[in-house]
């Protein structure tokens, strides 16, 4: 950025090599190499061809990394490992891309560099990532060296690697949008499943179902107490004088005693047909969540068409619509259904699973025009492979996780994670 005194970070080659020099007190031992430093951080550049998009702006999120080596051979091995790593990232995201080898001694003074370009809908390839084999250029310029086994100072060989997180999102939207919205791949979608209840109304809110659950719990406790009282009847086998037992008809008039409170049936009394549908929805949500499946429950009062539009706009790849038939709503829940509403235990022993097993819901994948009517049992089988997705991450965080995960596939030697522009060690 243009300034006469301060500079914001456009890239961090100089800071990275200065950092390791400070950490090792200007005596970098050979046994500490190779060393990898990487960070997810915001970069600032005074772009001449500024675009009002995520592709090219003055501030953007980037993953940049730097490797330091004692030989050119070691640098080449790490350089090609990064190249394969970045290729895997673009392949996993299903982005059409090509890798272009750039000429030597470019603006980064690199001995070798490769640019990763993604094909956009306008037919143009645009830069998404870049890796540079810098050699000992920065070591010579800054006078930073390492100590070999004979305690002699030698130049450090350096590599630089960067991939734009904001640009990845730009390419994903450009590649996968349609007339309805965004079709993000499951690996980076903000949620894996979008859950909709068609008869959702404010009166059937979480507060209402909480009251139902509480009422059922109180009922269950009262019934348990009654059973306990019956079991504690005094043993009458030792009663000998039965002549004093008076006939109830001859007993004097007693004052009226209040009747015992009537205990409602927890299975039917607190619940109506819409409540059963709501219990199914909440149970599904909790079950998916406890299985580490990203699921978003749209509990708003919006019309169904608005909910479907919201699902498409944010790029959720799967949606489930619950709209029980009149017959299915007559299902009677077990008296202690509240014990199974939110349990991390296995699904099959769950009484609610056995109750709803054959209930049908509508399922649709964002990548298929076909709508499927499937049972709850079929639904769980459909999503059993989604249990390895982290719950509740934003698209940006998912992209960061994706790049970091692929980055560490080849992790060798020493690795350091930078948290800030000031390069503080974690």
TrEMBL record:
InterPro entries: aa-tRNA-synt_IIb (IPR002314), aa-tRNA-synth_II (IPR006195), aa-tRNA-synth_II/BPL/LPL (IPR045864), Anticodon-bd_dom_sf (IPR036621), Pro-tRNA_synthetase (IPR050062). Keywords: Aminoacyl-tRNA synthetase, ATP-binding, Ligase, Nucleotide-binding. GO terms for cellular component: mitochondrion. GO terms for biological process: prolyl-tRNA aminoacylation. Residues 247-268 are annotated as: Disordered. The keyword Manganese does not apply. Residues 1-185 form the Aminoacyl-transfer RNA synthetases class-II family profile domain. Pfam families: tRNA-synt_2b. GO terms for molecular function: ATP binding; proline-tRNA ligase activity. This is Prolyl-t-RNA synthase. It comes from Plasmodium cynomolgi (strain B).
């Amino acid at each position: 950025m243009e300034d006469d005194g301060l500079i914001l970070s456009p890239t961090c080659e100089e800071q990275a090599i200065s950092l390791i020099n400070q950490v090792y007190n200007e005596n970098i031992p050979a046994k500490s190499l190779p060393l990898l430093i990487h960070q997810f951080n915001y970069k600032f550049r005074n772009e001449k061809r500024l675009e009002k998009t995520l592709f090219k702006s003055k501030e953007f999120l980037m993953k940049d990394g730097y490797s330091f080596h004692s030989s050119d051979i070691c640098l080449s091995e790490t350089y090609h490992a990064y190249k394969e790593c970045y290729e895997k990232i673009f392949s996993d995201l299903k982005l059409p891309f090509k890798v272009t080898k750039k000429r030597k001694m470019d603006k980064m003074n690199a001995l070798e560099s490769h640019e990763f370009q993604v094909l956009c809908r306008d037919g143009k390839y645009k830069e998404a990532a870049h890796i540079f084999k810098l050699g000992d250029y920065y070591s010579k310029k800054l006078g930073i060296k390492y100590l070999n086994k004979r305690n002699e100072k030698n130049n450090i060989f350096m590599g630089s690697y960067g991939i734009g997180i904001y640009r990845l999102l730009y390419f994903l939207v450009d590649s996968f949008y349609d007339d309805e919205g965004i079709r993000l791949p499951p690996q980076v979608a903000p949620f894996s499943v979008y859950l909709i209840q068609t008869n959702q109304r404010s009166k059937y809110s979480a507060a209402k179902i909480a009251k139902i659950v509480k009422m059922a719990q109180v009922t269950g406790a009262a019934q348990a107490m009654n059973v306990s009282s019956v079991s504690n009847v005094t043993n009458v086998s030792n009663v000998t004088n039965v002549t004093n037992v008076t006939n109830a008809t001859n007993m004097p008039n007693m004052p009226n005693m209040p009747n015992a409170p009537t205990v409602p049936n927890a299975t039917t009394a607190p619940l109506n047909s819409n409540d059963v549908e709501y219990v199914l929805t909440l149970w599904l949500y909790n079950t998916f969540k406890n299985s580490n499946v990203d699921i978003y429950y749209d509990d708003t009062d919006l019309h169904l068409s608005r909910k479907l539009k919201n699902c498409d706009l944010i790029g959720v790849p799967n949606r489930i619509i619950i709209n029980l038939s009149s017959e299915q709503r007559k299902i009677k829940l077990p008296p202690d259904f509240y014990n199974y509403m939110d349990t991390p235990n296995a699904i099959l022993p769950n009484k609610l699973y056995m109750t709803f097993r054959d209930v049908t819901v509508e399922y649709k994948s964002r990548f298929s025009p076909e709508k499927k009517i499937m049972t709850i049992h079929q639904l769980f089988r459909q999503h059993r492979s989604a249990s390895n997705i982290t719950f509740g991450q934003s698209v940006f965080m998912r992209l960061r996780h994706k790049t970091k995960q692929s980055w560490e596939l080849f992790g060798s030697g020493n690795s350091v994670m930078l948290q800030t522009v000031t390069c503080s060690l974690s």
